[in-house]
């Protein structure tokens, strides 16, 4: 076992631990997981949100390397990949914090599909128990067509409760995606979490999804919703601080959004929600104004962290056109950007905290 040499780090606030999503370090089919882990460790990240795509890609590689003909399933190879990733992370002093995204789960009208998802969830729970000692599975709100999922909140909450019971003691974090069909605000997700009322079920707060839903409009000439959006966001953050139990926050995810031309082709893909298309192509690390970042994530970050008194993992979760570039330098470049962003986040959080204490 060995540890990679890392970039010297300044004295950091120990209330928060920096993490990064593996998707932020490159596309799974272009950038090997080992390159991503090296980049994360060298640039001071301590935790990883492991995207299932990266684990599945490693499983494919392990399958291709196998020489015997004994019958084995895709899940068998994913279990092998989970063991390998845990060992690789241990060598680099990295911790897998979450496995995600467990998509399109809650509210399925077709209960046979629901049963299939529960079966898959049991496999993910097995993977989590291999990957580390304190992981959670992240379930993002479903964005299937409204004909496929119910809007009945009691049903949605019951599905989340079932997932938590199946996963126990592994934790489940629920996150509202800005383009979710029925659940698309933090208020919506928190309502379901309270209704489900399970000890291992909590919330994931994402600065991009919060700001994108309440404040932004990438198809507008201004990039934002009408002037009332400032007040709407402010009121939402006041409610967040008042209502959310910080002990139920499993992670805060950070990302900004790029100001793009409203006529940009990737915003207008038939059948794809605009906010989803924008998210997949144009997220940025926090405070990358030089790259077009413009969302009011400072206010959102302050509420989610200082306002709630949150301590724990803070992860950079960035989807971008640049992560899909077929360039071996992508993981290191993105990890370095994440490190610079994290230092800026810490600086601004501390300034806001000091200002409020005066």
Automatic annotation (TrEMBL):
It comes from the Eukaryota. Residues 38-344 form the Xylose isomerase-like TIM barrel domain. Signal peptide: none annotated. Coiled coil: none annotated. This is Xylose isomerase-like TIM barrel domain-containing protein. It comes from Penicillium patulum.
